[in-house]
Amino acid sequence: MTITNVDFPPSQPRAPKLLSWKRTGRILSFETEEFYRKKIVENLRRFDNLGMDNNPDGRRLAYLDACSWDDNSKRAVDNRSLNGSSCGMFLHNVLAFCGARSKHLLKSPYNSRKGEVINMLLDFAEEHGGLVNPNRRDFKDIFKPKPADMVYIYNLQSNSQHIFMFSDVSVSGNLATFHSIDGGQKGVGFKDKPCNGIQARKRTMILSVKNETVDGDTIQVKKFGKKFVQESKRPIVRWLDMGKCKNAFTENYFEIIRNQGNAALKSYTKPLPADPDTPGPPEPSSPPAD
Predict the structure, then answer these.
(1) 250 in Cβ contact with 101 (< 8 Å)
(2) What pLDDT, in 10s, does the model give residues 198-216?
């Protein structure tokens, strides 16, 4: 079921020596939820460390493939100012490569209004019953995210927003640890503009209502009445439960291929590494993200 006038993905990658893809016979809506999530995360991880800095040659073009789907979205990514970000555009393409189709995805011509793609992702999840508001009284009981789920975090005062997808989730006692691959970052060791790279991240979240702190980047949901005493600069304001969205993955799954042999991408000449044990670079706290 194709609900778009966009031919996606393009027949030819822009930088095949770094990033390419191949069409498979798999349609994820027919798979088990566990396998469906696994295949989304496999593609997610293979985009790690792309960005605007064109070193090695072609890295920037591969980043454009990771974040754009028509001429307007390509121009929006390619002409990013210091205040731009592509966190939503990247996740939009992850879903599309994996076969997701919806009236809310692959819109063309792309409208580059601030936050447009985040709204597309929220609308997509809501269409399939997967958009969860943390203001629900039972949120702390039902919030059990899995790999491939997304969360949208937002600070009203600074108008700072971000969306990211979990690559792994683990819980130990009172602490949840979330690994993710995020757009809207600055690649480590690269000269990406702020908010214009894709990077692995690690965050933690305290699960109890006690006023506790932990080292590193800690996120938290909005307060439930007077129960939660800790909030972060950008609390979770929506959870996108991708388990509810499986039926939208009606097109063939395109497997992302992170091609081998790049001097700057040596980690990809062997099987994909596990998520890092240390936090990634700090997120920009002020520019709004797309």
Answers:
(1) yes
(2) 999 888 877 654 433 334 4
